[in-house]
Specification:
- The protein has helices at about 25-30, 65-80, 90-100, and strands spanning about 5-10, 10-15, 110, 120, 125.
- It is α+β, with helices and mostly antiparallel strands.
- It has 2 domains: about 5-50, no CATH class; about 55-140, no CATH class.
- Strand 4 (about 120) and strand 5 form a beta hairpin.
- It starts with 5 loop residues before the first strand and ends in a 33-residue tail after the last strand.
């Protein structure tokens, strides 16, 4: 344990080791004949932290709750079936995935840092570069809920 070493710095009594000010006025210090040995306190150096960007403290976005995601999926799949299940090319899927990864609204969640699968926090849909039925990016009639990409072709609903 070490003790503070008070010195007169910028008109205040300050420890030169930890930089903490002493709660004593200069008049009181002068009344003690400027004797720094009469002032003792345990020296607690300030905690040094690496500079961190404010964005790093932002909480990651949360996806919608499961019932909302399930309802979105059922609605999306019903529309997709009604439109005749149009598919995107692999190039279109990759383009959409790149837009999602660099989401201007910061709503894309990677499931694993090195995985190719992510999730949209706005609608909860799975987003990957796979040409699968349940991948929203592979459906030509789908669009981003935040309007960052749209349908590849405009579809008209079939009447049953």
């Amino acid at each position: 344990m070490s003790f503070c070493n008070p010195q007169l710095i910028d008109g205040k009594l300050t420890c030169h080791k930890c930089g903490n000010d002493f709660p004593i006025s200069l008049d009181e210090f002068a009344a003690m004949n400027n004797d720094t040995t009469r002032i003792t306190r345990v020296c607690i150096p300030p905690i040094t932290r690496a500079p961190v960007e404010i964005a790093a403290h932002r909480a990651p976005p949360l996806p919608p709750p499961f019932p909302r995601r399930f309802a979105n999926y059922i609605w999306s799949t019903t529309k997709h079936l009604a439109h005749g299940m149009p598919r995107c090319t692999q190039k279109q899927i990759d383009t959409r995935l790149e837009i999602c990864r660099a989401c201007p609204s910061n709503q894309f969640i990677m499931r694993e840092p090195d995985a190719e699968i992510g999730m949209c926090a706005a609608c909860g849909c799975c987003a990957s570069n796979a040409d699968e039925f349940n991948n929203k990016l592979a459906r030509a009639d789908e669009s981003c809920p935040l309007a960052h990409w749209g349908p590849v072709v405009k579809m008209q609903e079939k009447r049953i």
